[in-house]
Amino acid sequence: MKFRFWGVRGSIPSPGPRTVRYGGNTTCIEIRSDDDTLIVLDGGTGLFCLAQALVAAPHRPIEANIFITHSHWDHIHGLPFFTPLFIKGSRVRLHGATDPDTGNGIEHVMGVQLQNSYFPVGEAQMAATIEYRTLAVGEALPVGDALVRNVVMSHPVTDLGYRVDCNGKSVFFTGDHEPLFNLYREDQPEHAAFAQHVAQRTAAIDDLARGVDALIVDCSYTREEYPSKVGWGHGTFDGALAMAVRTGARRLYCTHHEPTRSDDELEAVFAEVMARHAPLPGGLQVFLAYEGLEVDLG
């Protein structure tokens, strides 16, 4: 199994000379299982770049299994521009969570973008076969020779983290995730019950991520930036490292880079964090994700 990053920025695309090394596209990760089944995690603007590579390759027909972590723009904006949707014989399966506020399934993520006010082409004009699969929380779904499982993460909207297993190799992606914390002070009566809720939710996430070969985590902020952004639904480098250590991950890939941060600034932040946490326990390896980074797990 191998995976490749096609988009690593958070919130909004940020192309330009300041981000040319790590890339300016928003979240999209391609996974290839051992039998070459295509699994895609999130449909940010990096999905368009993946689409161009798929169309240029000799493989036909194209079958893509897309798993959306959540419905915020930077994770779905590439969907209408996924070129295989317009190619007859292609099959695109879109997976994701139910929106608990509206009851809408994953098909709404596509439908709202294809309204005529926002996009000139409707689904009826797309030549591919499109299938929608709204996932149950905790569902285990075989996809080719891989198994995809999910868990609810911590974000202002329902966000599914995904674990993909294939023949003994594994990847876990948090999507957007802010480590859970207690909303109540210790002197408030709700504190004890909510502390138990935090512990249970954190344990469920850690259990699914435990022992993965590759842990891909939202590292939007530094510890200094985070206090002014509490509740925004994003994590820190320090939080990601803590999760990697707790779960026994072999490799940590930091992604969802802050869009205002230049490549030089990103590397400086990363160097400071790594220096503070050296030496890393248990042989853990840590990397900054960048567009085009491909990892073969064997």
From TrEMBL:
Classification via SUPFAM superfamilies: Metallo-hydrolase/oxidoreductase
Transmembrane segments: none
Ranges for domain Metallo-beta-lactamase: 25-234
Superkingdom per UniProt: Bacteria
SMART domains assigned: Lactamase_B
Pfam families: Lactamase_B_2
Name of the protein this chain belongs to: MBL fold metallo-hydrolase
Organism: Pseudoduganella albidiflava
Origin organism lineage: Bacteria, Pseudomonadati, Pseudomonadota, Betaproteobacteria, Burkholderiales
